[in-house]
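Reopening this one. Same input as before:
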Amino acid sequence: MDQGKIIKIAIPSDDGETMSDHFGRSLGFLVYHVDLSSNKVINKEFRKRSYAEDFHGHRKHHHGHENDNETSPEEARRHLDILNAIKDVDVIITVGMGPRMVSAFSSLNKTIIIAYDVDPDNLINEYIKQYIKT
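Same output, byte for byte:
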């Protein structure tokens, strides 16, 4: 089968099944590969983050918002880990995202969509219906 352009869509997830309610602290990302010529999902993978387990259950979560001009080394490491995990995706669907991550992904020309359905498969199907089909 001759495939057309493939886009990749990332959704934060802790379990590879549902969307995580906290983008920056998710354990990984579900990444869907969508063939635009057929409007079908041709692959789905769960990418674990390398740094997520270090802070997910026990570290105090610090956003660094007290002074928006400074980023803690831990926060910078977390953000870099996220960027590396999904640097090849075109679209990110999430419940929410902090301003620094929005800025980082926007500068990389990534599309960010805020959604509230926790079923990633439903989200992907809705995305295909609303944004891909003509």
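So the earlier flakiness isn't reproducible anymore. For the record, The two ends are 22 Å apart (CA to CA).
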